[in-house]
Amino acid sequence: MRTRLLLISHPATAAQRKGAFPADERLDARAIADTARFRASNGMLLNADTALSSPAACALETAQALGLDAAIAPELADIDYGRWRGRRLSDLANEEPEALAAWMRDPSAAPHGGESFDALMLRVGRWLGAFERDGIALAITHAPVIRAALLHVLHAPTDAFARIEIAPLSIVELQRGERDWTWWPAQRS
Fold first, then answer.
1. Is 142 helix (H, G, I), strand (E, B) or coil?
2. Do 70 and 140 touch, CB atoms closer than 8 A?
3. How far is CA 84 from the centre of its chain?
């Protein structure tokens, strides 16, 4: 069995551009335009045997804007930011500086009452372990999910999560073959 999994991060949402933790928001005109440009320059990558999406509105609308009929995969949901959802980082830095600092350096911390990065790593690792599809699969998801997938595949420590940046509309390619999952540069095909 040979699987090629392309993880695509959704475009920046209005909340993200304001420096806020994501909420389940729809794409605005700017994000839709960014996705149209991405589709025009990456169209060949979008031919897949399987398309999946996070259940979040921004991911589902990204899949739609890319012309994909994506099935919802709950495991691709963004990390749960708990009571910080939709809040600006700058406000939290003033109101809860110790909690924010702990969350940013400790993958087991979830001072916001939501999900820790360690918990996200377990969820994504289980999903990758059970992923049984031949051919090319696309998954529209969120930067933290892609970070977790990379760390899982590389068997890297979870505290490395803060050293990985995933830009909006980035592609990370994972392949599953004889050596299990490996990370590949996303290639135009």
1. coil
2. yes
3. 18
Q: Is-contact 16 188, C-beta < 8 A?
A: no
The pair of structure tokens assigned to 33 is 């335009």
In the chain, the number of structural domains is 1
Domain residues for the domain of 109 are 3-184
The answer to whether the predicted template modeling score (pTM) of the entire model surpasses 0.90 is yes
Cβ neighbour number for residue 109 with a 10 Å cutoff: 16
Distance CA 2, CA 100 (A): 41
54-109, pLDDT tens digit by residue? Answer: 999 999 999 999 999 999 999 999 999 999 999 999 999 999 999 999 999 999 99
Which residues are within 8 A (CB) of 61 and not within 5 positions of it... i.e. 6 or more apart? 26, 27, 32
Contact 167, 11 (CB under 8 A): no
Residue 176 placed within a domain: yes
